[in-house]
Description:
Number of domains of chain C: 1
Shape of chain C: elongated
Radius of gyration of chain B: 24 Å
Largest sheet of chain B: 2 strands, antiparallel
Helix content of chain C: over 70%
Shape of chain B: globular
Largest interface: A-C, 91 and 75 residues
Oligomer: heterotrimer
Distance between the termini of chain C: 58 Å
Strand content of chain C: under 5%
Order of helices and strands of chain B: HEEHHHHHHHHHHHHHHHH
Amino acid sequence: MSLFFTIFALAACLGAVAVVISQSVVRMAFWLIVSLGSVAGLFFLADADFIGAAQLLIYVGGTLVLLVFGIMLTASGPYMKIPASPGETVVAGLIGVMFLSMVFSTLPASKEWKQSPNYIAETVTPEFADSSEGNTLRPLGFALLGVRPDVGQDGAGYLLPFEIASVHLLVVLIGAAYLARAKRRQDNA
Amino acid sequence: MINTLAANSLSDAFDGLSVPLYGQLSSGDALVVAAIIHAVLVFHVFALCPFFLIWLERKGSGRIQDRLGPTRVGGRFGWLQSLADGIKLIQKEDLCPPVADAMLFRSAPYIVCLASFAAFVVLPFSHNWVAVSADCGLFILLSILSLEVFGIIMAGYSSGSKWSLFGGMREAAQMVSYEIPLAICALIPIVSAGSLNLGEIGDMQGGHLGNWFLFHDPFTFVAFFVFFVVLTAGCKRAPFDLAEAESELVGGFHTEYSGMRWSFFFMGEYASMFALCGVAAILFLGGWHTGIPGVDGLLQEWRLKGAESPEFSPLGYLANVIGAGVFVSKAAFGVFVQIWLRWTLPRLRIDQVMITCLKYFVPISCFLFLGATVWPLMWMFATDDGLTSAPFRSPLGNRATHAVSEGTKESSSTPQSSAPAEAPEDNSEAESAATGENTAMAEPITVGMNFSEVRQ
Amino acid sequence: MLHDPDLNSYLFIGAVLFVCGVICMATKRNAIGVLMGVELVLNGANVNFVAFSRYTTLGLDGQIFSLFVIVLAAAEAAVALAIVLNFYNNHLTVDVDRGNKLKG
């Protein structure tokens, strides 16, 4: 368990750092895959099977392929690079380290949260007669339909956000198709 | 997740086993040993299926083109031809063109191979014979297989050759588009099954031929054929193999590859063909059930005995071995049909491929999905009593409604607890499947028995 | 040496992803590189959501939130990519520093 966690955590972090460091866009996309794929592995380890699979399907299989597609459509030459100036890189690195240390300084505050090592497996999934860990498929589905037996009467479902998200996706579909449609280039000269 | 590993059952068997030169195995060591054994087994399935399928492809194409195909290597039928090819490919020089982006160029075949190998982790071969029995197994499998396209795009882009780039671009467009109807068609039997766990879906279809989801309703029947065509396109097989159209693109995305890296692409391709045909077999063709009532009942009886007895039972194991054989032959037959199609049909143009997907398959699969969700309601209107006593199954599946009625017993305020949960016990057609689902939850082993008792 | 992961180890990864994403957004001049930075930031948030739902009493809500984040990130990427393509159509480059027509 901890071995897998270490592997995935290292891959996620190093992949993210490599995204920042590498200059070629396609290499950035490659490292982003490594990073996001390992994050999906972390989700599996955190007993969130469905989220992990959604991460793989939507992020890695969908969004990133879309990005690479965009890279290919906009590349003006092979292995296009647009380097940042050295000064910018140094400043960004400094700010990044400061920012990181600031965020890390807030980590001990997580002790304030009411920790419970296995809350979902103990509280949520038994309500759905599923005993194995990471089995959040059915609870998730019901929550998206607005039914929350796991939190009782006071629990709010997510039916309205779900509907809004679906309409939002439709709008995005139409909007993206409209924006990206082929137009005759005017300033070719 | 770690608790759902099938390796646990084997590790129980190993626990406390005395090993020469080592002494007693602790339970942690037993788990590791069992996990390694499972990984090796799955890896061999993954490695052997290209081995066999490439031979099948050569033999099949030979027959279709009225020649013999490989005949010499390994005695009769040339059955060791793939091994000879493999040895030849290992000996070849591993080339990397100077204009290529070397790091991406070298890693692309591994991405393809890794993605199609990882898909086998959630693919069950027989009752309870699965490495990870995840509850959203089908979803995980499809999402892992969708990673394969990335390796191909990487290969196409990093080769620094226009043939590869064109091949990669076509591949990206084609696979991303065909993923949509593939996922929708895979959801159609799920509507009837009410579960995404591939093992449970397979267990539900025991009994006889009528229990296969292929014959569940007219929509699933059509959906199977759409699914099969779409998965053929998703595996970039002919007549949709535009990414490697030799006549126009030399070799497509793998033009610049040689030796083992080249063969990794093909291992990945054949393995994912097998995995997707296996999914089709589980979703529509009854998985590891033969479909013959007597035989299925007998096998189920053996499994039941195996489950009852506390120690290892050879009969239950034998039943599972037969089940795995049935499953593998179904999936291999699916691959054979793909090979048959490849050597029979001419290749489409790229615009025709995209039009076939976006203008035909997506609307057809959406319509079928809608039909499959509405189908249970037809039973409601067909009977006089209407809602209360119709063989009504909620589109969510009976397991789900059961879960809600259990969950709302305390609060008793949510409306869902009323109609679907009180489904009657005495009807014939649809309810039998629901009963099967209920028992599947309690003890999955009895499902097939239930079917054969109810239906015969 | 290796102990079982806890809440803080997940939050640590989330923080690293987040900061890398922010730096990526700030330094990359390629519009698609900026987009990748956004994806990293959103993933850092996702890791935190899932970790909180696993290790605290937040329950299922964390997972649902991360699901929505994933869906909306996909939508955002589609629109942003359409904008980038439009930008490329007008400027023949994806260098965001060249988009300075509104500069006074």
